[in-house]
Amino acid sequence: MRSTLFLAPLLAAITRTRAQHDHLEIPEVEQYVHSMLGEFAHWTHYPGPSPTYWHHPSPRPTKPVPPRPTDQCDYWLADVKHQGIAAFNPSPNTYQVFRNVKDFGAKGDGVTDDTTAINNAVSSGGRLGPAQGGSTTVTPAVVYFPPGVYMINASIIDYYYTQLVGNPNCLPTIRAFPTFSGGLGLIDGDQYGANGLGFGATNIFWRQIRNFIIDMTLVPAGSSVTGIHWPTAQATSIQNVIFQMSSNNGTQHQGIFIESGSGGFMNDLIFNGGLNGAVFGNQQFTMRNLTFNNAVTAISQIWDWGWTYKSITINNCTVGLNMASGGPAAQSVGSVTFIDSSISNTAIGILTAHGPNSLPPSGGSLILENVVFSNVGVAIEGEYPTGNTTALAGGSFTVAGWGEGHSYKPNGPQIFEGAITPVSRPASLLQGGGKYYERSKPQYQQYSVQRFLSARSVGATGDGHTDDTAALQRAILAAKAQGKILFIDHGDYLVSSTIYLPAGSRIVGESYSVILSHGNFFNNINAPQPVVQIGKPGESGSIEWSDMIVSTQGQQRGAVLFEYNLNSPSSSPSGIWDVHARIGGFAGSSLQLAECPTIPNIVVTADNLDQQCIAAFMTMHLTKPSSGLYLENVWLWVADHDIEDPQLRQITIYAGRGLLDQSQSGTVWMVGTAVEHHVKYEYQFADTHTVFAGQIQTETAYYQPNPSAPLPFPYLASLNDPVFPNTTAVDGNLTIPAADGWGLRIVGSSDIHIYGAGLYSFFDNYSTDCSNQGNGEVCQDRIFEEVDSSGITVYNLNTVGAHYQIELNGVDVAYYADNLNGFVDTVALFRD
Ligand SMILES: *[C@@H]1O[C@H](CO)[C@@H](O)[C@H](O)[C@H]1NC(C)=O
Ligand SMILES: *[C@@H]1O[C@H](CO)[C@@H](O)[C@H](O)[C@H]1NC(C)=O
Ligand SMILES: *[C@@H]1O[C@H](CO)[C@@H](O)[C@H](O)[C@H]1NC(C)=O
Ligand SMILES: *[C@@H]1O[C@H](CO)[C@@H](O)[C@H](O)[C@H]1NC(C)=O
Ligand SMILES: *[C@@H]1O[C@H](CO)[C@@H](O)[C@H](O)[C@H]1NC(C)=O
Ligand SMILES: *[C@@H]1O[C@H](CO)[C@@H](O)[C@H](O)[C@H]1NC(C)=O
Ligand SMILES: *[C@@H]1O[C@H](CO)[C@@H](O)[C@H](O)[C@H]1NC(C)=O
Ligand SMILES: *[C@@H]1O[C@H](CO)[C@@H](O)[C@H](O)[C@H]1NC(C)=O
C-alpha cells in the first residue's frame, strides 16, 4: 500500500506556509492533501510491462557539428578553468561557486553510498539550506556530476540558488538503494521541516537541475518513492532528465512531485513507469517535450490556475492526464492548455471533473490543439467520479481543436464543450508537422573546451565593483571574432555604458552571471539607454544566450535592460534561454529594504515619490526593425521584496515598462515567460504580429494605486504608452482603482496567439484584502486590453483581482464574477 506518512509534514505545513506575499495557493494544497488521503485506492490493478532502460540520446546541435572530442564524455563545463566568484558574498575570494561532487568524495561507482559526499558538495561554504529558510543571492553554486552511477540512501537536499548539472554527453545516474528512505525525493528541492517547507515555494527562484538519470528501480515497486520534489517559483528549470521507475503491478513510484509554488518551466524529460509519472500542483507552469511511458497515470494534475503543455508524448498508460482532482463539486484544477502532443495506447486520455454542472463554474477549463490520439479507449472522460460521461470518444484520430469552459468570441460568456476552430497558425512560427517551433537551451556539449573563451580569462573581473564595461565588451567581440562561445564566469559585471552583442554571438553564463548597470549614462528618464543591446538596428543574423541575469544598481531612470534589434530569420531565430531581469532587492543593487521600504501610509505623489528607487525605464524592448526571437524561461522581475532579508520584507521599486514588442516583421516565441511589477504594463504588443506565447504570467505592482500607473514615468507616444484614467471605478459598494498597470495590452497588432495567461493583481496599496475571493472585492478595474487589433487568440486567460478580465476597444467584455474559478477567474477561449 502507498504510505501516506509523507503527507503529515504537508499538513503541518499548511498551518504555516501561508505565502508571505502574494501567492495564496494554500487552500488548493489543503484541498489536495485531504483528497490525497483517500486517493490511489482505485488503482489496485495495473498489469504494466517491465521497465524499459533508455540510453543517453545523441546531442542535437543547432550549429554545424565540429569533430567530437576524443573522449565521448568530455564536457567543457567540467574542463573549463573554474574561476567564477560570488561578488557580494562576505568572502568572495574563498567562496567556491563551482563544485565537482567527486572533489567531495562521491565515487559514482554504483556501489558506494554517495549521499553524504553529494550533500556536502551542495552545502559547503555557508550556503543557504532549507533548515534556515529565507532566500539569498550571495551563495550561488553549480554542483557538477561527472559520468557515473551515484548510489544514495537518503535525499540529496537542494539548497537555494543551486544548479545541479550532470554531464550531458554521458548522463550520470542517481540511483536509490533498495533501502532508500527518509525523504521526499531522490532530490528534494525544498525539504520539509517542523514548520513546513524550508523555502517558501513561491519564493524559490534561480535554480536548475539538468542532465541526469534518476533511477528508482531498485526500490521495491510497492514502496512510495519520488524522483524529484520540486515546489518552486519562477526562473527555475528541470531539463534533460530521465526518470526510471518500476512499472510492476502496484507500483508506488512517482517521477516528480510538486505541491505548491509559482513556476516555472521544464523540458526534455522522459518518465518510464510509475504510479504517476508526475504529480503537479502549482499556480502555473510551461512544460515542453515530456514523454511518459508505461505509467498508471502519466500526469496527475492535483491543482493549478493555468498550465501549458506542449509536445507531450504519452504511451501505454492507464490515464494520460488526470485533471479530475477535487471532483465535480470542488474541482481544484483551474485550467490546462495541451497542444502539439500525442496520447497512444492508453485507456483514458484525459480524465476531467468538468461537466455542465461542475463547480467552480469555469473550473477544469481545457483547450486542446493539434493532439494525436492513437488507440485510446476514451479520449476525454468527464464528470468523474459521479456519473462518468464520454466528452470525446476514443479511437485513433487527430484533434485539430477541442475545448470546454467559458468562451468570449468576442462576447460571452458562452458555456461550451466540443470541437473549436484551432488557431490559424502563421507558417513562420512552425516547424515540421504543423507544430510550433521549439528549441531547447543549448548546452554546447558537442564542443571541446578549446572552443570557449572565458570572460575572466580575458580581463573582465565580475567582482561587483570594478567597471567591466570595456573588458566585457572586448571579450564579447573577441569570442565572436574567434568563432568561440563566450563563457561568462559567475560574477557581477558592473557596466557604465551599453554592452553590445553582435549577431553571431553565443554566450553562456554560470549559474546566472549578472550584468549590473550603474551610473549617469543610464539615469536620464528622457534619454533611455540599453544596458544590453542585441544587434544594432538594421543588423541581421542571430545570437544564442543563456543562464544570465541583467540588473541595475541604484537609481537608473533611463535603463532599458534588454534592447533587441536583430533581424533574425524565422528559420534560425535568435534564442534566449534562462536569461532573466532582476531589478532591485538583492545584494549589490543598492535597492534593498534600507533604501526602498514600503510606505503604504503615505499618499505618494509626484512631489514625494522616492526618486532614488526608480530603477529602470523599461525591461525588454523588441524594437521595430527586430524580428525572429525565441525566448524560453525568461522572467523579467522588478523586486517586490528584499531577497536577502530573512523575513523577505516588501520594498518599493519603480520600473516603467515591462516587455514591449514593437517588431514590425514579428515572428516571436515566448515560451514560459513572466513579467512582474512594472508601472505601466507587463506585456505590451504594439503594431506587431506573428507571436506564439504561452504560458505568460504577470503581477501588477503591489504599491499601486499608491501611486497609480501614470507616476513616475512620463507618457511617450513613440512607445505606445497607455493613457490611464484618473478616476476610480464604482461597482455597487466597490470602489476600484482604475489606474493600475496593464498585465497585457495588445494595440494595433494581429496574429498574437497566447496559449495560457495568468494575469494577477493580488494587492492594492500592499493589502491583499482585494484579492481574497469571497469578499466580493477586486484589486484593479481592468487587466487585459485589446485595441485596434485582429486575429488575437487567448486560451485559458486566468486573472486574479481584476474587475474586468478583458477590455476590447474600450468596451468591458468579461466580468470577473461570470467566470469564477476558485482563486482565479477563467476564460477558456477568447477570440476577437
Ligand atoms: C495486481 O495486484 C493485485 C493486487 O495484489 C492483484 O489482485 C492482481 O491480480 C495483480 N494483477 C496482475 C496482472 O498481476
Ligand atoms: C540504508 O539505510 C538503511 C536504514 O535506513 C540501512 O539499513 C542500510 O544499511 C543502508 N544501506 C546502505 C547501503 O547504506
Ligand atoms: C526531447 O527530449 C528528449 C529527452 O531529453 C531529447 O532527446 C529530444 O532531443 C528532445 N526533443 C526536442 C525536439 O528537443
Ligand atoms: C507498449 O506496450 C506494448 C504492448 O504491451 C509494447 O509492445 C510496447 O513496446 C510498449 N511501448 C513502449 C513505448 O513501452
Ligand atoms: C468513472 O471512471 C473512473 C475511472 O475510469 C472509474 O474508476 C469509476 O469507477 C467510474 N465511476 C462510475 C460511477 O462509473
Ligand atoms: C494605503 O493603505 C494604508 C493602510 O491601510 C492607508 O492608511 C493609506 O491611506 C492607503 N493609502 C492610499 C493612498 O490609499
Ligand atoms: C490625468 O491627469 C493628468 C494630470 O493632471 C493629465 O495630464 C492626464 O491627461 C489625465 N488623464 C486623463 C485620461 O484624463
Ligand atoms: C458588497 O455588497 C455585496 C452584496 O451586494 C456583499 O456581498 C459584500 O459583502 C459587500 N462588500 C463589502 C466589502 O461590504
UniProtKB/TrEMBL annotation:
<protein>
    <recommendedName>
        <fullName>Rhamnogalacturonase A/B/Epimerase-like pectate lyase domain-containing protein</fullName>
    </recommendedName>
</protein>
<dbReference type="InterPro" id="IPR039279">
    <property type="entry name" value="QRT3-like"/>
</dbReference>
<dbReference type="Pfam" id="PF12708">
    <property type="entry name" value="Pect-lyase_RHGA_epim"/>
</dbReference>
<dbReference type="InterPro" id="IPR011050">
    <property type="entry name" value="Pectin_lyase_fold/virulence"/>
</dbReference>
<feature type="domain" description="Rhamnogalacturonase A/B/Epimerase-like pectate lyase">
    <location>
        <begin position="98"/>
        <end position="322"/>
    </location>
</feature>
<dbReference type="InterPro" id="IPR024535">
    <property type="entry name" value="RHGA/B-epi-like_pectate_lyase"/>
</dbReference>
<feature type="signal peptide">
    <location>
        <begin position="1"/>
        <end position="19"/>
    </location>
</feature>
<dbReference type="GO" id="GO:0004650">
    <property type="term" value="F:polygalacturonase activity"/>
</dbReference>
<keyword id="KW-0732">Signal</keyword>
<dbReference type="InterPro" id="IPR012334">
    <property type="entry name" value="Pectin_lyas_fold"/>
</dbReference>
<feature type="domain" description="Rhamnogalacturonase A/B/Epimerase-like pectate lyase">
    <location>
        <begin position="452"/>
        <end position="521"/>
    </location>
</feature>
